[in-house]
Amino acid sequence: MAWVLKMDEVIESGLVHDFDASLSGIGQELGAGAYSMSDVLALPIFKQEDSSLPLDGETKHPPFQYVMCAATSPAVKLHDETLTYLNQGQSYEIRMLDNRKMGDMPEISGKLVKSIIRVVFHDRRLQYTEHQQLEGWKWNRPGDRLLDLDIPMSVGIIDTRTNPSQLNAVEFLWDPAKRTSAFIQVHCISTEFTPRKHGGEKGVPFRIQVDTFKQNENGEYTDHLHSASCQIKVFKPKGADRKQKTDREKMEKRTAHEKEKYQPSYDTTILTECSPWPDAPTAYVNNSPSPAPAFTSPQQSTCNVPDSNSSSPNHQGDGVSQASGEQIQPSATIQETQQWLLKNRFSSYTRLFSNFSGADLLKLTKEDLVQICGAADGIRLYNSLKSRSVRPRLTIYVCREQPNNTALQGQQQAVGSGGESGSGTPYVYHAIYLEEMIASEVARKLALVFNIPFHQINQVYRQGPTGIHILVSDQMVQNFQDESCFLFSTVKAENGDGIHIILK
Length: 504
Known about the structure:
alpha+beta
């Protein structure tokens, strides 16, 4: 027995000696004389990335860190972004942490900074139509907000603000030197923005994004400091807990080899650095174009729609330019394209197409417009861009009678001599297109074409046999022959207030 123990000691001492010998040259091989990092970076494989590598002492260090106190999902693959499940309306803490090193950003020491927290769409397709999506949500949930701050539970936040026109954003001031926690509540759920499909619904992911700013020389919080975001999905109350449990149970059933492909679940979610959320482009008010980027702004458009065009497609107020019915031309500028959208009742899409010229808009296919604007407005916009005008129900030609000609002479000359007056001057007729076969439409179109104040027209008569005046009724208009020709004159009303129009 003693001999066996002795042999074990000999073998063990030999192994230790061999191991020490194998490590004896490592320090020399990796010494400065053997390896130079500048030589390594000079290799061809690194040359293209050389300019992007930070220099010594210039390593980027984020000034802030935001941590949301909600567990990440265990069913996320290693190289994918984390995903966090939230319950609708539940308060979740976001810790605002000062991550600066000693001496970093001394200009904000002892000062407040402003942070804006937003809930936005993760999918690019929904970002393009964000304004329309949020307007639809607002219509279905009047008075509600997508995102709120739970102020009683929050710590260290000052001057909290919510804009009624920005239902998905909250902002506040805070001191980086003090403990700060903002408790948020998300009221929209992921399935509210998903069209119903067979086999249930699959909720769309959102993003929680925090943008932080410092004061500029004018005291406004516009100088960007830091932005970070994380991916979330929002479920009905208790739904996030059930989803987290389901994901955990699925992972437990996987083999050890499969589990290695997935991230572990963490108790908190760290928001990762990202680009700042773009500001809202300036709306086209007073024909002033906007230089800001389109498609991804969470703010809503403030464009004003002319009242005369807001009621129905065929109704226009008296005196309104007929340009709203004209087709847009490929040569139209960005500014003219915005005006065309406003006049044709597409004001909610002016922000979306804020950088589009007429040629850009006309290049979009029907499928493109349906995907961007939704089925109803997409088809309507496509028809407005591509289709011809609707054929009128009745067309008549009208000429204003010259004072020195009688009605009978005018009719005879129009028919017998090619529409010329006694002096050889041709009668000029105007086409009147009637969409409605009623007498008031005749009066309104005559007023519009011949610049007669509509409110001054009392009655419209048609001159009959032996010069009698027949009141033009709806039934008479319905029996007009298409492309009939009329001369007309005006006479003062009997009471001196207004005029009568006589068709001859």
